[in-house]
Design brief:
- The complex is a heterodimer of chains A (248) and B (130).
- Chain A has 248 residues and is of the alpha/beta class.
- In chain A, 31% of the residues lie in helices and 21% in strands.
- Chain A has a single domain (13-220), classed as P-loop containing nucleotide triphosphate hydrolases (Rossmann fold, 3-Layer(aba) Sandwich).
- In chain A, the strands form two sheets. Chain A has a seven-stranded parallel β-sheet, sandwiched between helices.
- Chain A starts with a strand and ends with a strand.
- Helix content of chain B is 23%, strand content 29%.
- Chain B has helices at 3-21, 46-56, and strands at 30-39, 66-72, 75-78, 83-86, 104-107, 111-119.
- In chain B, helix 1 (3-21) crosses helix 2.
- Chain B is elongated and about 60 Å long.
- The chains are: A alpha/beta (248), B alpha+beta (130).
- At the A-B interface, strand 1, helix 5, helix 6 and helix 7 of A face helix 1, strand 1, strand 5 and strand 6 of B.
- Strand 1 of chain A pairs antiparallel with strand 6 of chain B, so a sheet runs across the interface.
């Protein structure tokens, strides 16, 4: 005899619940989170600095939290925008989780903050699995990373509400094929909007801010990724795990 | 490498289930094996997860437990065409009939504990029997 428990439990259920709670609490205080995902070196700090500066000029209350394995360099750069910025060091962890984010916001998040930008750890694999309670998830890729990035990291691009191409000023130099990139994005995330930006030239600065404000006003993103429609668990909800005995 | 975080979450959930599955006088049962359903598009590497799981089981009721991973293939649907297809990896979420985007992903993002098999616990004396 061997006892078996059919659990049918989603492994990330705890994070998903924390994320839903955090989203509800932040929405109640008028704050929407924008979760930014990209590889290291994709230029998301430079673009975010420009977006924050623009938001400050327009009088939109924004704040940013930047996560890295080590160093406070990104916070120093982002703070030049004039927006409140907090650096989070993950001590080697490759991603943020909803509970961790909530802990970092406690006692820091300025009031009022309409948009809180979270610059996730530079990594396109792990952060994709963790909902941080965001209103808008943005996946970024620079032209120097090649056209097939969305196919190599389908979860990061497939679950995004907005895809941003950075360093567009270098497209010609690295022979970046924008049409192929767009086709690859559409393959994993049909219907998602893709915007081209260059923080250096000021191209497309404000696109993320505008989409984030629209999602904030609407109470949700305009785009619903197909990948996000997937059921997370097969099992119907049991009141308690089903235990039974098998003979072997 | 978020597989360690996932392995720790699995161990935590199985330990809670062990407490729930214990019979009145018995010690909580120890796990013999844990079966996970892992979607092809869940972004988890089973080999890496197995390695982390072994480490995460140390000093718990799961020590020595085997991790079994069942892969769930990705499948998408186009509602207007009433078409369903295997997405493959990287996934193709374009409808093979109309060329439009899929309406939904019906499988492939699972990351769930399907079942736990327990070793029968040795009956431990209750404090009154000491």
């Amino acid at each position: 005899m061997c006892r078996v428990t059919e659990l049918q439990q989603a492994v990330l259920a705890k994070n998903d619940r924390s994320a839903d709670d955090l989203r509800a609490r932040l929405t109640a205080r008028g704050t929407s989170v924008v979760n930014l995902l990209s590889s290291p070196g994709s230029g998301k700090t430079a673009l975010l600095e420009a977006e924050l500066k623009l938001a400050c000029e327009r009088g939109v209350p924004v704040a940013a939290l930047t996560a890295d394995l080590a160093t406070e360099n990104d916070a120093t750069r982002l703070a030049r925008s004039g927006a409140p910025v907090k650096q989070v060091l993950t001590d080697g962890l490759c991603h943020l989780e909803a509970d961790m984010l909530e802990g970092h916001l406690d006692g820091w998040l300025p009031d009022p903050t309409r948009l809180l930008f979270v610059e996730n750890v530079g990594n396109l694999v792990c952060p994709a699995s963790y909902d941080l309670g965001e209103m808008l998830r943005v996946a970024l890729a620079s032209v120097t990373e090649g056209e097939d990035k969305p196919l190599k990291y389908p979860s990061a691009f497939g679950l995004a509400h907005l895809v941003v191409v950075t360093k567009a000023d270098l497209a010609e130099a690295v022979e970046f094929d924008g049409e192929t990139f767009l086709a690859n994005v559409r393959q994993v995330n049909p219907g998602v909007e893709v915007v081209f930006t260059s923080a250096r030239r000021g191209q497309g600065v404000g696109e993320i801010l505008d989409r984030a404000l629209a999602a904030h006003e609407a109470g949700g993103p305009a785009h619903h990724p197909v990948m996000a429609t997937a059921p997370q668990t097969h099992g119907h909800h049991h009141g308690s795990p089903h235990v039974h005995a098998h003979s072997h | 490498m978020h597989e360690m975080s996932i392995a720790l979450a699995v161990v935590g959930q199985v330990e809670s289930a062990a407490q729930a599955a214990r019979r009145s006088d018995d010690a909580a049962p120890t796990a013999r094996s844990v079966t996970l359903r892992v979607g092809e598009l869940a972004g988890v590497v089973p080999e890496s997860l197995r390695f982390c799981f072994e480490l995460a089981c140390a000093d718990t009721l799961l020590v020595g437990a085997e991790l079994r991973c069942e892969t769930v293939p990705g499948r998408a649907r186009c509602t207007p065409c009433d078409a369903g297809w295997a997405t493959g990896l990287p996934p193709d979420l374009t409808c093979p009939r109309c060329g439009g985007g899929a309406s939904e992903l019906t499988a492939g993002r699972e990351l769930e504990i399907a079942e736990v098999r327990w070793a029968e616990p040795a009956r431990v004396p209750t404090p009154e029997e000491d």
